Amino acid sequence: MKKWTSDYISAFDDVLVNFDHKIYDLVDAQSPEEFDGIVPGAVYGHIQGAINIPPEEVFDATNNTWLDISQTAQIFISNGLHETRPVIIYCGTSLHASMLWFSLHRLKYNATIYFGSWPEWVIRAPDNLKVIPKQNENSLLPSSKENLRTSNSNSQTTTFMPQQKKKQ
Prior knowledge:
There is one protein chain. The protein is of the alpha/beta class. The protein has a single domain, classed as 3-Layer(aba) Sandwich (Oxidized Rhodanese, domain 1), CATH 3.40.250. Helices cover 29% and strands 14% of the residues. Strands 1-8-7-2-4 form a five-stranded parallel β-sheet. A two-stranded antiparallel ribbon has the order 3-9. Strands 5-6 form a two-stranded antiparallel sheet. Strand 7, helix 4 (95-106) and strand 8 form a beta-alpha-beta unit. Residues 45-130 form the Rhodanese domain. Residues 140-168 are annotated as: Disordered.
């Protein structure tokens, strides 16, 4: 069994440290609607400073084919990426991120997938590093400053409380 390697996978701390060191470009592979946080039903948005490149820009689902290398290269360049700078890609599940990872590797980019992706970031990251529209911000998400096991009745956020076992 192979172990995960930093050649392919980035962790929460890699993304967090990048805000100080600016080593990587950060690419969000969510749909534009998820990136902008306008999809109902969950907390959507993006990591501060991320560039949105959904996989549909490099993959033609109608024909089930990847764009050719020159077209793909132009998309990445027009979004500010350069093959000499490493890239961290994320989305909501790592599925779309893996599609962009493949496209970046075809062009010899040094790219990794942030495995925890948006769901981990939205829970663990400082609030100033999340971009979440106000209509979603208060509906489902506890503040990163709140303890998830306590309730704050003055809070505008929903707090997640573990179920207490009943004594019998």
